[in-house]
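tool=predict chain=A
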Amino acid sequence: MLKYLVLFTLLLIACNHTDETPDVSHIDASVEVTRFEQELFAIDTTSIEQEVERLSGEHTEFGDIFFYQIIGIPGSTQSLAENVGFFISDPMIKDLYDTCQVHFQDFSHYEQDLEQAFRYFKYYFPDKPLPRVYTCISGFEVGTFTIGDNLLGISLDFYLGPSYPYYDPNLFPEYIQSYMDKPYLVSKSIQALVANYLGETRGNTLLDYMIRNGIELYVKDKLLPFEPDEVIHEFSREQLSWLHNNEGQIWAYLMEQDLLFSMEYRKFQKLISPSPNVPNMPPEAPGRVGNWLGYRIVSDYMDVNPDITLQDLLDYPDPQQLLTDSRYKPARG
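tool=predict ok
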């Protein structure tokens, strides 16, 4: 009997988009992608000062962030040209660039997926600008990021797959490497876009974090309606099955331990941050389970408040009020 229960749960997870997905085929959302890493590594190093100046002038906004913050050396007295020359001549960086070119020489598939996500973005947020997309190599400094509302940066070196031999396990443990792969590139990029508009957590309680992060996941899900839950939430199918089967017990645990309104970040950090598991919970409980519960609360809130738009959701009310209005009450099982 248990075998069939798990199978049924997995089918529910796989078919989570039962609501009518809007038709966005008529929306123009052309993606403009700049392969900044290709331009950078193609410069003439015999005239590096002029080349860096030219590149900075052609890509002012992105160049300022990339050159001075991402690859900039804190406290360095070297000139910009010297820093750039050091970066592109570093053997590790050169090997990383070559590897990324093998993996991402043809970026058209990702452009198409981003364009489709941008169509949904324009559908739900018609007044917001579509960002110009830049790809780059950051030397494992930053994955996906936004610069204002107009630029979206994607560091390709964060998507080489868990078998890439030079991911430092001290920086990227196995449970993080699992999602540093091509299938997550567009999803993580769209999440960065949503996070830019959502902003920081407004309070310091676990509930504040859960609702803010749940909204981020909910909006990302709407912009990527055909991505599987495993990609949206970055959980395995087995983990998602466990979460669905134990949702009521997880919620009861948070209430019994007085964690929901706790402001002691260290007590609930692993409930909202990447971690292989959560202390004092069953070993099957993955890190970030609180974000998933937040997503479930936000989903219920939107179900019982059909007039609320995604823009309204980004301007969400007090998290406690949202929880109350959601009428969230998971079954104990």
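The beta strands are 33-35, 132-136, 144-147, 151-155. The CA atoms of residues 301 and 322 lie 7 Å apart.
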